[in-house]
Amino acid sequence: MHIEPGYVSAAKVIAANAGAVGVVVWGCKEQASEFVKDPLIPVKTLLAAVFFSIFMQSFHMSVGASELHFIGAMAMYLTLGFTPVLLGFALGLLLQAFAFDPQDMYHLGVNSLSLMLPLISVHYLSGRQLFAKDLTKRLTFVQILKLDAMYYAGVTGMVGFWLMIGDVATPFTAWAQFALSYLALVACEPLVTFIAVKGLKAVEGNAIVRNLTVVPQLKLA
């Protein structure tokens, strides 16, 4: 989901940075309202950033016009919650840029939006129903597959958008190669997500799981 420096003009990068800052500010505002009920939510955000960084470093490979990464998006979303993962993406990318790839700082806003906007779409279109107290919707493996498919369709779409408005001519086949490569992750990540949720659900009475995850809010089929 990375866009390498040089693909997008400086003016568009500035616009993307402004958009990313706007999303982060909105996410902080949403999290501030949740803080009253859940004072440990900033800790969940730090956990999301750390786990995301570990996942990113565990597997990454250049494919087509971008890079293929193991993100673990739905595993984190269904265990740590929406705003922690939303802000954790931006914080995790910032940590990655400082620690491993300083050149990624230039496209920090671009890459952050590529991860955050699909998560927002997944949450408000489908995901938040799984956490609603007044609903009895249960989480199934099929639903995890759908969430993953929605999310990675959004990520690949965002990469296509940046390449489309970029200053470097990029063949459609290069983007298609990248998009198709994510099918392997869409096949693997739901298994990781299901195992993580199922495992934590089995010990949801544990104080750490109860306080630092949102798993107790989920109902499994």
What does this molecule look like?
The structure is a single chain. With 221 residues, this protein is mostly helical. 67% of the residues lie in helices and 4% in strands. It contains 8 helices and 2 strands; from the N terminus they run H-H-E-E-H-H-H-H-H-H. It has helices spanning 10-35, 41-58, 73-80, 82-99, 108-125, 141-164, 172-202, 207-212; strands at residues 60-63, 66-69. The chain has a two-stranded antiparallel ribbon with strand order 1-2. Helix 3 packs parallel to helix 7 and helix 4 packs antiparallel against helix 5.
Helix content: 55-70%
Q: How many strands appear in the DSSP assignment?
A: 2
- Portion in strands: under 5%
Strand order of the largest sheet: 1-2
Radius of gyration: 17 Å
List the uncertain runs. none
Mean pLDDT, to the nearest integer, reads: 86
